[in-house]
Amino acid sequence: MLMKEGRSKALAAVLMIAPFVITYRTVFAYPVYKMFALSFTDAPLIGEGRWVGFDNYAKLLNQKLFFTSVWNTGYFVVLTVVPNTLIGLGLALMVVRLKGWLQSLVLVLFFLPYILPVSVVTQIWEWVLDQQFGIAQYLIEFFTGRRISVFRDPIWAMPMVALVTIWWTNGFNLLLFIAGLRNIPADYYEAATLDGATRWQCFQRITWPLIWPVTALVLTLQLILQLKIFDQVYLMTEGGPFNSTYVLLQLVYREAFRLNHGGLGSAVAVFLFLIIVTVSVLQYQLLRVRGR
Amino acid sequence: MSGIKLTGVSKSFGAVKVIHDVDIEIQQGEFAVFVGPSGCGKSTLLRMIAGLEETTGGQIRIDTEDVTRREASKRGVAMVFQSYALYPHLSVFDNMAFSLSIARRPKAEIDAKVRAAADILRLGDYLSHKPSQLSGGQRQRVAIGRAIVREPRVFLFDEPLSNLDAELRVKMRMEIARLHRQIGATMIYVTHDQVEAMTLADKIVVLKAGVVQQVGEPLELYRNPDNMFVAGFIGSPGMNFLKARVMSAAAGRLVVELEDAPGVPFDVPGTAGVPLGKGIFLGVRPEHIALGEREGSVPLKATAEFIEELGGTGYLHALTATGAEMTVECRGEERPHPKQAIRLSLDPKEMFAFSERGERLR
């Protein structure tokens, strides 16, 4: 009797977790396994290939574009992750001081870009930054003395892609920070005010340490997201000019979908996958330890 | 001398006035308690003294200095919050040292002051703990310690015991009383619990809807309340109120008759000039009502409802013929049964007369 009940409980448990297990296996575990497997073959985009051992990895190490992509991806991460986080925190500190409907309105305005599709975002910014009639050119001209076709200039292209990315994704970080800031009781600030703390001291000694778990989370999410940069680059610069915005995911796309090198494309993907896993786990652990 | 004087202090939120022309004087070293029901403005008044809430009108003086418009940190007050407001990421030591460390005091001085405060509060063993590792009572002590370290002119307590369980509350109450004796500073304490007010205060300020009802020593408020609100609020359980009619009045005494006991006139202290035949309220405390009939007392018939049994004493809740609710303190063995018809004796010497509007008739 007892065994029968135990068996039916186990069956119910299996049935309940089955949808997750099947989905996870089909859309995550199997493709990841396949990616690793393909990276050791000379497979084209579709179909199986022959086992070639570490040949694809060796090929990558002899390819200049691979190193350019690694460098550019790193550059993009540096340009976006920390600035995006700090801007999000800075804006949140300002927005959280607003009261009632005004706070909601400002929050909506900042969040609005985040719900736009990437193609719309890039189109907006191509207009804003257009060399002929872009409104931002007045600013560029003011500082540099000339109009610049930013997406065709190897120095300007990547920072501009970063700028667009920050504009696009900052609303989400802002939202996370607002939630974090609202969790800090007003009493803490009142007690500090009575103790004579200045606004900066309040930030330094109360807000910053107490918002740190959210900051660590935002930094990690940003790192993962920005390492996977592809859409904005593909739509705005296609990796150019002179490969100055060529990134790892674009190399995967080029090898696999343009040159029909499924195996080599997978090798780049494996490389990116390992970077993301290592860096994000490492970063999160480091940040967590610091926050203790 | 760190006395506090409030003169005509008022506070409005937009068109809503929440504190009405408050005048209070608290002497140096006095333990003053602001007491009143929720929403009476007692916490707001405390926060105005602290400087956390802007004062709309009037003047607040500490040590004869006008601090009405002065920044909170420059008033020389320290506050213990209801939530304790301890920083969860800092140790007990750092929490207590917070004010000194932001003022960049020398390390040796910080260390000495924090340890001295920790000794007073018996927190010496917990200085390296985080607030989350402490019990409610210990957290409360840390919050007090943080105030002591600042050596303020005035200590402000905003319902500091309301997050503790009943047993701990009594214990902490004693600790706060001991602390007051030990350091002798001026303290203002806000609570809605009149027992806390009675046991701690040198001076009680009773507030209702932002208006001071009465200021005085605990026993003075108990023995000589200015109005029905104070009479009902101070004392536990609260005073009983019965409707009565004035039959005649002379030389500071009123001859009255209870609605529940017609034909039994008796006299109570009260102002002459109250219109004859007019309705008034008579207040009598549960401890001044006896079960059964007594010589020289006013007899009253009632029906027993239920008893709150405390062991040594019990509180009998009863209903009179007109439906007035009565609470009677029963000492000794005798306890009526529910629904039993009983006779009560009210001591006329211990009765208070109030006008229909609740003002005391003296």
Could you please describe the fold and organization of this structure?
- The complex is a heterodimer of chains A (292) and B (362).
- In chain A, helix 1 crosses helix 12, helix 2 (55-61) crosses helix 12 (262-291) and helix 9 packs antiparallel against helix 12 (262-291).
- Chain A is mainly alpha-helical and 292 residues long.
- The model of chain A has no long low-confidence stretch (mean pLDDT 90).
- Chain A is 75% helix and 0% strand.
- With 362 residues, chain B is an alpha+beta fold.
- Chain B folds into 2 domains: 4-233, P-loop containing nucleotide triphosphate hydrolases (Rossmann fold), CATH 3.40.50.300; 240-361, OB fold (Dihydrolipoamide Acetyltransferase, E2P) (Beta Barrel), CATH 2.40.50.140.
- Chain B has 8 helices and 21 strands.
- Chain B has helices at 42-50, 92-102, 107-120, 136-149, 166-183, 194-200, 218-223, 228-233, and strands at 4-13, 16-26, 31-35, 57-62, 65-66, 77-80, 154-158, 186-191, 203-208, 211-216, 240-250, 253-258, 261-269, 279-284, 289-291, 298-309, 313-320, 325-331, 341-346, 352-354, 360-361.
- Chain B has a 6-stranded mixed β-sheet, with helices on both faces. In chain B, strands 13-12-11-14-20-21 form a 6-stranded antiparallel β-sheet.
- In chain B, helix 3 (107-120) crosses helix 4.
- Chain B is elongated, with a radius of gyration of 24 Å.
Briefly summarize what is shown.
Chain A is mainly α. Helices cover 75% and strands 0% of the residues of chain A. In chain A, helix 1 (2-38) packs across helix 12 (262-291), helix 3 crosses helix 11 and helix 7 (157-182) packs across helix 9.
Fill in the keyword field for this structure.
heterodimer; A: 292 residues; mainly alpha; MetI-like fold; 2 domains; 75% helix; B: 362 residues; alpha+beta; Rossmann fold; OB fold (Dihydrolipoamide Acetyltransferase, E2P); six-stranded mixed β-sheet; six-stranded antiparallel β-sheet
